């Protein structure tokens, strides 16, 4: 319910919202309409089989961390991204497709998740180089059965490695099935 948000909601961790990079706000009906309007929505089939617009886009997700500073620094350094920015309890790591990873310190155990990044061939070489420079183990497969190897799935390249919380990270140069 974007139109119902008020600025004071931003102090609440449950109402996670923040300014846009261009300084405008995500709040208010008029702005919400403007921001939510997709440039070009792909088409898909709804439950009834009717063709529909697929305008829902992932905007951000939370990455739980034992140490949020260490984790955010790890992500931006390995992936070659701008420094994370602080927003409330989060360190926000912005990605190239306007999705952010919002790193938050965990109160308890961190349950490993999977985060996959689509990168260019050049970026793949740079990230792979940083992984090797740090002496980190990498694998060709999601289940970590092929250490020290990369895969060539879908005609591209891919590899997996772990962040300080054992989140299973992946870079690919071609989308699955692409
Ligand atoms: Fe994956």
What does this structure look like?
The chain is an alpha+beta fold and 178 residues long. Among the domains are: 58-105, 2-Layer Sandwich (Signal recognition particle alu RNA binding heterodimer, srp9/1); 112-178, 2,3-Dihydroxybiphenyl 1,2-Dioxygenase, domain 1. Helices cover 19% and strands 24% of the residues. The protein contains three helices and ten strands, in the order αβββαββββαβββ. The chain has helices at residues 29-36, 68-79, 121-133; strands spanning 43-45, 51-53, 60-65, 85-87, 90-94, 100-105, 114-118, 138-139, 158-162, 168-172. The strands form three sheets. A four-stranded mixed sheet has the order 3-6-5-4, covered by helices on one side. A four-stranded mixed sheet has the order 7-10-9-8, covered by helices on one side. The longest helix has 13 residues, at 121-133. The protein is globular and about 50 Å long.
Q: What strand order characterises the main sheet? A: 3-6-5-4
Put simply, the count of helices is 3
Structural class comes to alpha+beta
Give average pLDDT, whole number.
85
Unreliable stretches, pLDDT < 50, 5 or more residues? Answer: 1-17, 20-30
CATH homologous superfamily classification of the domain at 112-178 = 2,3-Dihydroxybiphenyl 1,2-Dioxygenase, domain 1
CATH class of the domain at 112-178: Alpha Beta
From the N-terminal CA to the C-terminal CA, the straight-line distance is 35 Å
Fraction of residues in H or I helices? 10-25%
Region (Disordered): 1-52
Protein name: VOC domain-containing protein
InterPro entries: Glyas_Bleomycin-R_OHBP_Dase, Glyas_Fos-R_dOase_dom, VOC_core
Biased composition (Basic and acidic residues): 19-34
